[in-house]
Amino acid sequence: MTVEKLVTPVKSQPIKFDAIGIEQLETLLRERISEYLQSRTTINGRVRKGSYELLSIATGISTSYLQQFNKNERTIAVICLNKLACHFNIRYAIVNFPPE
Length: 100
What we know:
Mean pLDDT is 85; it is low at 1-5. The chain has a domain at 28-93: 434 Repressor (Amino-terminal Domain). The chain has 100 residues and is α+β, with helices and mostly antiparallel strands. A two-stranded parallel sheet has the order 1-4. The chain has a two-stranded antiparallel ribbon with strand order 2-3. Helix 2 (52-59) crosses helix 3. The protein contains four helices and four strands; from the N terminus they run βαββαααβ. It has helices at 22-38, 52-59, 63-71, 78-87; strands at residues 19-20, 40-43, 46-49, 92-93.
């Protein structure tokens, strides 16, 4: 005896991305980091200006790595890009094509 599962088709909404590819993601992250550094946040009842140190604590990425990425426009590891994208709620897509 077999059991069949009925699957009702669901109309899917197209997925919208904030960035497509590494270049767009890096550009958008640098913009968000710059905005973050100009922002103010209340932490434990104290108003603090956004800093690399606070961003480092929130993301687990070292402050020097964040500074090199933002100020010197150096590339960083994809895992760090992902951590930053998650922190800033950025949806992105990266496709890895096999070499021809």
